[in-house]
Write a structure and sequence with these properties.
The complex is a heterodimer. By secondary structure, chain A is an all-beta fold. Chain A is built from no helices and 11 strands. Helix content of chain A is 0%, strand content 50%. In chain A, a hairpin with a 7-residue loop joins strand 9 and strand 10. Chain A is globular and about 40 Å long. Chain B is globular. Classes of the chains: A mainly beta, B mainly beta. At the A-B interface, strand 4, strand 5, strand 9 and strand 10 of A face strand 3 and strand 4 of B.
């Protein structure tokens, strides 16, 4: 079945560490997205990529970095510069046209210890 | 992107029909209306999408009046498993638009 796979499901980070969240899709979607969700809140856009080797900052990109070397993969690195990284991170992809909405992964819950 | 307004929370009982209304006064001609459902600790999932009049699938119905300035998601005979957050998004699903997922409507279904 086609879909988006995020790993790991849970991640613990020590202060000052960089961590990388994985996102892989086999839907042949060009566009991929990273969102952050805090408890009881909506989703906030961190970064997005509409094509391989290109990506743009979203609303809350500070302290995060991404790469898009392959169509299927869009990893997110949470750097030590992100002062409050504890959150639920969601990766999504989108296909062409109005018939297609977002397809989301199951998320990664990151906790700073 | 059209700004949307929906209730922050709603309560219902099992077996009842639930209607969640979303206001989108500045919807554009090319915009579609899409609803997503999110369970705790999961990603949102697509429920239904429509442009005008009524759309029905196995999960829900979407009612859109002629002026398209609002839409209503209807969930028939809800069960406890329908407890979730429901998001209304309005826009044209071209790559140039990045949709904003606001706080959504938190639906609580009670026994």
């Amino acid at each position: 079945d086609g879909g988006i796979t995020q790993s790991p499901k849970y991640l613990f980070r020590k202060e000052g560490q960089n961590v990388t969240l994985s996102c892989e899709q086999n839907l042949n979607h060009d566009a991929m997205y990273w969102y952050r969700q805090d408890p009881g809140q909506g989703l906030r856009l961190i970064y997005y990529s509409q094509i391989v080797n290109d990506f743009q900052k979203g609303d809350i990109a500070e302290g995060y970095s991404v790469s898009r070397e392959k169509k299927e993969s869009f990893p997110l690195t949470v750097t030590s510069a992100q002062k409050n990284p504890t959150a639920f991170y969601l990766c999504a992809s989108r296909g062409p046209g109005t018939a297609y909405g977002y397809t989301f992964g199951s998320g990664t819950r990151l906790t700073v210890v | 992107l059209a700004k949307t307004t929906q209730p922050i929370s709603m309560d219902s009982y099992e077996g009842q029909e639930v209607n969640i209304t979303c206001s989108h006064n500045n919807i554009a001609t090319n915009d579609y209306i899409t609803w997503y459902q999110q369970f705790p600790s999961q990603g949102p999932r697509f429920i239904i999408q429509g442009y005008k009049t009524k759309v029905t699938n196995e999960v829900a119905s979407l009612f859109i009046p002629a002026d398209r300035k609002s839409s209503t998601l209807s969930l028939p005979r809800v069960s406890l498993s329908d407890t979730a957050v429901y998001y209304c998004l309005v826009g044209d699903h071209n790559y140039g638009q990045n949709f904003v997922f606001g706080p959504g409507t938190r639906l609580s279904v009670l026994p």
